[in-house]
Design a protein that fits this description.
Helix 1 runs antiparallel to helix 4, helix 5 packs antiparallel against helix 7 and helix 10 packs across helix 11. The chain has four domains: about 50 residues, OB fold (Dihydrolipoamide Acetyltransferase, E2P); about 80 residues, K homology (KH) domain (GMP Synthetase, Chain A, domain 3, 2-Layer Sandwich), CATH 3.30.300.20; about 70 residues, K homology (KH) domain (GMP Synthetase, Chain A, domain 3); about 60 residues. The chain is built from eleven helices and ten strands. By secondary structure, the protein is α/β, with parallel strands linked by helices. The longest helix is centred in the last third of the chain and has 17 residues. A four-stranded mixed β-sheet has the order 1-2-4-3. A three-stranded mixed β-sheet has the order 5-6-7, with helices on both faces.
């Protein structure tokens, strides 16, 4: 027999929390308050049967709305939530205000906003990531906490081959494969993880978006405009060719090539 829990709300209505809608680590004592969302309302003998859930993505969405005023006010939007209840969740968020960092706002100072939610969800790991319509970047972020080296994308087949350093592979897959499963659900792509033997992958390359911390976005956009979207594609051109084909200054090109070369020398 499935162990469902019977609850009463303030008006005395009976609510049901089935075992399947409980987080595996949930344990409730008689008389305690329980937080959950209404999953569905069934009719039985002309009276409503209200089914609650603590495992649905909507429950996590509501907890975030309570903790993060910017979500409640509509300044930050939750684009998608995927969960393995009690184990891990991934939340993609987007800000409608350039001054607000959506990930920082959701996590809070030193994790202050997310801590309460993690406790409520029985120590479920919550990865909050910045949503982007750039699928390559979204896949990269969805595999957090792993850092990827390079990627091959098949947009038609919605498939990605991702290469990582050996010490990052198990992080990408996660315990019982949960991390990669959630990354696939979040992005809608089937992701295969491969070990990159210290840069020996055939045609090893790095996407230019990976350099966004060191190279200005407008420079990356300018390079993409002329068909260069990876580090190798830039380095394959001479400085003179780059100067002729782009609107970049000689100094900018020199600095850019230096940054890209250093990355390959690390490998």
């Amino acid at each position: 027999m499935e162990k469902e829990i019977l609850l009463l709300d303030e008006e005395g209505n009976e609510l049901i929390l089935p075992k399947s809608e409980q987080i595996p680590q949930d344990y409730f004592k008689k008389g305690e308050s329980i937080r959950a969302v209404v999953k569905k309302v069934d009719m039985k003998n002309n009276s409503p049967v209200i089914i609650l859930s603590r495992t649905s993505p909507e429950f996590l969405a509501k907890l975030l709305e309570i903790e993060v005023p910017e979500i409640f006010d509509g300044l930050i939007v939750i684009k998608k939530i995927v969960r393995d209840p009690g184990e891990r969740a991934k939340v993609a968020v987007e800000s409608y205000d350039d001054r607000i960092d959506p990930v920082g706002a959701c996590v809070g100072m030193k994790g202050s906003r997310i801590h309460g939610i993690v406790r409520e969800l029985k120590n479920e790991n919550i990865d909050v990531i910045n949503y982007t319509s750039n699928i390559q970047l979204l896949i990269q972020r969805s595999l957090t906490p792993a850092k990827i080296t390079s990627m091959e994308l098949d947009n038609e087949g919605k498939h990605a081959n991702v290469y990582l350093k050996p010490d990052q592979v198990s992080l990408a897959i996660g315990r019982r494969g949960v991390n990669i499963k959630l990354a696939c659900e979040l992005t809608g792509y089937e992701i295969d993880v491969y070990r990159d033997n210290e840069g020996e992958v055939e045609g090893f390359d790095i996407d230019l978006d990976e350099f966004s911390d060191e190279i200005d976005e407008w420079v990356i956009d300018e390079l993409k405009r002329v068909g260069c979207d990876t580090a190798r594609s830039v380095l394959d051109l001479t400085a003179e060719e780059l100067e002729r084909r782009t609107d970049l200054e000689k100094e900018t090109i020199a600095e850019l090539r230096k940054v890209l070369k250093e990355e390959f020398e690390k490998e």
